[in-house]
Amino acid sequence: DQQVKQNSPSLSVQEGRISILNCDYTNSMFDYFLWYKKYPAEGPTFLISISSIKDKNEDGRFTVFLNKSAKHLSLHIVPSQPGDSAVYFCAASSLTGANNLFFGTGTRLTVIP
Amino acid sequence: NAGVTQTPKFRVLKTGQSMTLLCAQDMNHEYMYWYRQDPGMGLRLIHYSVGEGTTAKGEVPDGYNVSRLKKQNFLLGLESAAPSQTSVYFCASRPGLGAYEQYFGPGTRLTVT
After folding, report:
1. Chain A neighbors of B105, CB-CB under 8 A
2. pLDDT at B98
3. Strand (E) positions, A2-106?
4. pLDDT of A6-60, one tens digit each?
5. Between chain A and chain B, how many beta carbons pairs sit less than 8 Å apart?
6. Coil, strand or helix: which one is A13?
7. B27 CA to centre of own chain
8. CB of B58 less than 8 A from some CB of A
């Protein structure tokens, strides 16, 4: 049973425009959320995170929004650049217990020059 | 500072053969993880360790064993490989309690024929 879902396998965006990647989760115990970026033949790299006590976290061109009531988070990339083309994974964790991460299936972002 | 390294990068096994994947980290992290990534499935946790000498099962532990004899190394073993274990395997580590971001290695692509 997939507890973290990314329903869009792929997304194409023009360079300079906004990219919005979405993620939904089902487990109400999750209270910490992360986004990872993955290039081909490399391991995932941490991008940005958010705790459930916040509804927004920003780092440069990347902003993550959390809507706890809807169990939904999104990653906004503004402006999108060709180097942002990668697979983006959403992950969730509970701050109690072992803090293991549960990953979504990923969204492949293509930024068109 | 190499971060997280994985050996080997590629391997082809015949059904029934055994092998060990090695993960090493030089960041003095307490926690280490083994994941597998399959198309359309995201990353799934196989086993993890919260410190030297400890191991625990993740979501998909069947057919795998692990050992953490030294803090910097986490070994993943396949005793009798099956075609269903064809996958890309990622190792990750994180500092410990209070730090939730995991740092990933570059991956091992394993094919079982």
Report:
1. 43
2. 77
3. 4-5, 10-14, 19-25, 32-38, 45-51, 56-59, 62-67, 72-77, 86-93, 102-103
4. 999 999 999 999 999 999 999 999 999 999 999 999 999 999 999 999 999 999 9
5. 54
6. strand
7. 17
8. yes
> Which chain A residues are Cβ-neighbours of B107 within 8 angstroms?
41-43
Q: How far apart are CA B102 and CA A70, in angstroms?
A: 26
Check residue B2 and give its pLDDT: 81
CA distances from B73 to A48, B67, B95 (A): 27, 8, 14
Asked if B43 and A103 come within 8 Å (Cβ–Cβ), the reply is: yes
Residue linked to tokens 């090695």 = B22
**Cβ separation of B42 and A93 shorter than 8 Å?**
no
Q: Is B86's pLDDT higher than 80?
A: yes
> By CA distance, what is A98's nearest residue in B?
B50
